[in-house]
Amino acid sequence: MQGVRGPVRGHWLVAGLLGLGLAAAATGIWFQRHQTRRCLGFYGPEAARRITLAPVVELLRVRPAIGAGTLTATERVDVSRAPGLVHLRRGLVEDANFAWPDRQPTAPLGAEAWDVALTFREPGGPGTTLVFDLDGEGGSLAVVGEPGRVGLGRLGPGLEKWIRSALAAAVSPGR
Q1: Alpha-carbon distance 72 to 95, whole Å?
Q2: What's the rounded Cα separation, in Å, for the pair 158 and 163?
Q3: Per-residue tens of pLDDT for the chain, all 175 residues
Q4: Is residue 163 exposed (0-12), middle (13-18) or buried (19+ Cβ within 10 Å)?
Q5: Mutual orientation of helices 155-171 and 85-92 as an angle, nearest 10°?
Q6: Which residues contact 151 (CB under 8 A, 6 or more apart)?
Q7: Which strands make up the sheet holding 56-64, listed edge to edge?
Q8: Measured in whole angstroms, how far is the alpha carbon of residue 157 from the centre of its chain?
Q9: pTM confidence score
Q10: S-S: 139 plus which of 1, 116, 129, 156, CB 3.0-4.6 Å?
Q11: What whole-number distance in Å separates Cα of residue 32 and Cα of residue 14?
Q12: CA distance 47 to 64
């Protein structure tokens, strides 16, 4: 009789471990979704996917275009392989990194407020461009062509440091 009970207990152990694994996976998915839901709503799912996965990432210094209220790039640097980009991508889609406006919509900023932009795209494909105001109170981020903006919150200081580093590396690539 002991020979029969051993395999039965083993089946319950395997079933219990499988159930525990499924519960852990479901909890992980829920937790991840909860951490990024506001960013997904702000960017949209396709833009959020590009921010996290696009193979081509460019850093642009921007200034207002003449008379149009739009921006023009004055410098373009490929930062697709810049150190820290993986962490920046993750930070850009995590809700806790931003200072989300309360109930009031955030007023748009004029073209003169924006300092730099990051474009995330597939080679030869459409892109998502984020513009950053690094000088304002706490800084801001907006998606080009979309309404609204969000405060940089705790992402701001690290973002400024990363941008300086990426631009310095582009000036002296032999470092």
Answers
A1: 29
A2: 9
A3: 455 555 567 777 788 778 878 767 766 665 555 567 889 999 999 999 999 999 999 999 988 888 767 888 889 999 999 999 999 999 999 999 998 877 555 667 888 889 999 999 999 888 999 999 997 677 899 999 888 889 998 899 899 999 999 988 876 655 4
A4: buried
A5: 150
A6: 98, 99, 100, 101, 106, 138, 139, 140, 141
A7: 71-78, 56-64, 116-121, 127-133, 140-143, 150-151
A8: 15
A9: 0.77
A10: 156
A11: 27
A12: 24
Name the β-bridge partners of 59.
Answer: 77, 118
What six digits make up the tokens of 6?
């051993």
Q: Is 152 buried (19+), middle (13-18) or exposed (0-12) by CB count in 10 A?
A: buried
Distance CA 110, CA 64 (A): 9
| CA dihedral for 55, 152, 115, 149, sign (positive or negative) | positive
